Here is the input.
Amino acid sequence: MLKEKEYIKSIVLVLLFLTLVVYHRVGGNGFINCDDPQYVTDNPMVNTGLSVKGVLWAFKSTFFFNWHPLTWLSHMLDVSIYRLNPGGHHLTNLVIHMINAVLVFYVLYLITGGGGLWQSAFVAALFAIHPLTVESVAWVSERKNVLCTLFWLLTMLAYYNYARYPKIMDGQPHPTKTSRIKKYLLVLLLFALALMAKPMAVTLPFVLILLDFWPLKRLSLLTTAEKIPLFVLSGISSTITYVVQKEAAVVQPLSVLPLANRVFTATVNYVHYLYMMLNPLNLAIYYPYPYNMPLWKPVAAFVLLLTVSVCALLLARKRPYILVGWLWYVGTLVPVIKLVQTGREAIADRYTYIPLIGIYIIMAWGCSDLLQKYRFKRHILIAAASVIIAFYATLTWIQVGHWKNSLTLFRHAIDAVDKNYQAYNNYGNALIDDGRLDEAVGYFAKGLELKPDSAELHMSIGEALTRQGKFEEAIVHYVRSEPLMFFDGEALLHKRFGLIYMRRKNYDGAIFHLNKSLEIHPEDTEVLNSLGITLMGLNRTEEAISVFIKAVSLAPQNASLHKNLSYALKKAGRMQEAQFHLAEAERLNK
Here is the structure.
């Protein structure tokens, strides 16, 4: 027993060290121009840090298509600690992922009764360092994924603590009914927290039923009925998510994407994720939706999935972990397998963060069983595991480097995935931020060659042309960008027209469009800043000051806003206030 405890300590230390070595470079990575602005940098409720107002907003808001208050609170806490230093935000993701890796090991070790020490360690190691996990760890906006998984695993731990009571050995005090209820309430609480981090946790009750089958061996009608309150929480979360996303027009209707296409894509996705697990050489942040998929692909994928499922069922009595691992994988992917199509992508690396644990379980326990009769079983397993872990760890280390910033990330996506029009869009936007407007226009044009009807590409090239002063060309693309495929398309269109009119010094037209944008998003600090500048152009200084004050109150850590407010106050003769905001701008720029 003492020796086993030493093994456990060593395994935990190795897991932490290995994960840290592979991922430590994320601390030098920056924010990227996809989702990070909405989640952190440009979100006025988040980038001011943790506050009473922010907490209330987090629980009431369905901003960005989801209700996940715990995720918002974690980002706010990061801002309070690190401000907008991206290294700190990345560090939090990494720490949570390291904790998750240890929990994967510890949970599997406990629920298998301590008999799967090395299998549990192998599963945890793959979870910790597989390249498909990089997106969840190295992307600040995917805090929701690692945070949800943390509470997912804690829920499993609490469930084990609840479920093990019937197996308490004679001679030990039996738990009271009150104690059992408390244990169950803890399971409910942790599960609720997982849902409040990311609604993908809705499949956890299903996984707990699988664990009742193996390895807990307590599956019955009664133990299944225990999950009813958990399924109720899943139903509530699923309903909220669907309603929010449908109202935000991010759920594509059947008229746009027929059910047959969705079923075909979902079937192929199940197989494709397995292929990506085995061969993670060309991973990217975005994979275009396969609208013109040949029929043989879903047919072949269906045959393969059916074959594996039948084999898992036939082996369920002798090798129950195969059925459990397979159903874990298939079941936990259901919310993101694209039967309900949101977004523009068909697959995403981040969606495999939890599901692949099921496949790792099959690999770990399966290899151990296959080599059971071999004389040098232990040596073969150690050698094979070492090679696999070293191979994946190397690829992960390389993949982390691609996430350094938007330029490196989307340049890699263009190279890794053919016809990646969305990568062209985001790479072009990164070039705009870098001041390379001519190059940006070129990449947007290449993206439009691949997808001429892309609203985002038209919007992006319009912005680049606006900055070049080519207003007439920009307007053509802005008009073609309507309707956009995301919830704030109309607001963004008015924002862009407002910017054009402002640069043309048509201030009345600019004010009209900027105010229209603010009617939809009254707390958009970028629009407020543009409106303030426009009002200054009309010498409406007091109105401009009011607008800048509102913008600064929403984003007090924005140096440009403080500088513009300082200029307006100085023009109004309010020198002391102007000096204060100028000093604040200089402080924030350090």
Notes: The chain has a mean pLDDT of 92. Residues 153 and 572 are 58 Å apart (CA to CA). Residues 86-111 form the longest helix (26 residues). DSSP finds 28 helices and no strands in the chain.
